[in-house]
Records
---
Amino acid sequence: MNKKNIENLNVSGKRVLVRCDFNVPVENGKITDDNRIRAALPTIQKLKSDGGKIIVCSHLGRAKSPDPKFSLAPVAKRLAELLGCDVLFADDDNIVSDNVREMVDKMACGDVLLLQNTRFRSEESKNEDSFSKELASLADIFVNDAFGSSHRAHCSTVGAAKFVEESAVGYLMEKEINFLGNAVNNPVRPFVAILGGAKVSDKIPVIENLLTKVDTLIIGGGMAYTFLAAQGCEVGKSLLESDRIEFAKEMIEKAKAKGILLLLPVDTVVIKEFKNDTEFKTVDSSAIESDWMGVDIGEKTRGIFADALADAKTVIWNGPMGVFEFENFAKGTIAIAQALANINDGTTIIGGGDSAAAVIQLGFADKMTHISTGGGASLEFLEGKELPGVVAVNDN
């Protein structure tokens, strides 16, 4: 990665604007998953110990204007607990104001201040220079450590970098780029990619890009039924994108022509009603009856997929194998997680989003080499796209 990082910075006595990804789930004012906050700690602690005045910013939720339910107040409290020090909170819906500037002016070296939700300003998502300049006016240096938001060209991820003296990436951003970049562009082989989740249309560029890189491509989840239909299988009421069947046929042929092993489910767990406590059975994937729908990979498929992973040296996984939110239909996702946990001499990367949530929820997090904090950003990276939030930072 040819970007300046925080090891290259002299922050002593300087104001450092740090963009983190604190878009965490909050229920009744309580954070239910603080992994993204924890992931930002090494960067904040480094800048703090080096004597910087750290001004942290982030968005939370899909706010388009000030909204108390999207306040970063719970984040400020949790960040203080995790850092073991006071965190100032600039609870100002304008994000940058005379009051906030006064708070920044009074900061001592090593102090940490969190701004209010950047999306309380409508200019944020439009990347308007006016708000970018306001954010930049608070700082001498900009550090982007928000990989999960780096695919968005917003004021706090891209715009502010244009109006400061110096910019760099944080430890988390550097780690994400290095893991995903090395996996895709310089993998130790065999290289296996596992794609799941609901829709083929969400992952078309990812599939196209990975079919130029991998040795084996495993497809499960809802998107598998479009590929099965492309092979002439009956898929019943399973999730099907009929307008993507031709694309699936093309990808099957492309994999065959390139000598890439493309694995699809050979058996499927099916249900009639979309709920956990409904009747279910396992059937051959080629013959799902008209009034049944597939919700998980079957036992034979779990074994085939696990065997394909046993000798892998690099694995990227994005998307669950079934409706893992329902306990009865999480077995396929659990089997993939277990198969990855059993890989001793390889790199296992979980590409954010639902697959990351599944791995954490199922207790396999400590068995994975890297769990990405960015769902959409990870996908765009796997598509081979440049991320605006990375491009904006100074080159080394």
---
Amino acid sequence: MRETDLYPALKAFLEARDYEVKAEIHSCDIVARKDDGPPLIIEMKRALSLQLIFQAVDRLALSETVFVAIARPKRALPREAAKLCRRLGLGLLVVSSSGSVEVLAEPGPYAPRKSKPRQQRLLKEFTKRHGDPNLGGSVGTKLMTAYKQDALRCLNHLQSHGPTKLSALREATRVDRAANILRDNHYGWFQRAGRGIYELTHAGHAATATFTTHISALTRGPQSLS
């Protein structure tokens, strides 16, 4: 589908909603107007691109009602595409090969709904994480989390003291979720040595060598674990 193939479908879509439609007005691909209202502007491209977004953002100086229009891709558009358009105050239209037009986003001021639970999880992880152990922008690498740091505190204590009662371990390490960490055993480091008593597995003993630098940083105080 060529870019010009989008125009007849978009023109028909707008005219069905009582707009007068004209193409290529002062560099705008499509300008439409209903009665004496403000202009509605559409910028077209075969696919969503930064160039299209830049053009549409520039058109916001001419109208508050600006859409970007693209041909329907073979694969579904990611949700972030409509979210980005809404964030910028733009609308998003998708035109199928049959000529149907779907509105994925309406133009207008962006007012995202805040997620209190997600914010609380973010701040909890920020507060509980010791130091700054990860490198920003890392991809495909295992990250150090507050949970793993707590597990390393438990690991270090069991390595130093041998089989330990859960209550004593929790008190010594000050890891409130020690019971969950030992029970879930996400990393395979821990095993029961008796009722309410835990010790390290072979994997746990090996991990003490693997994470020596991180464990040392945890015991030194609030410094980076890198």
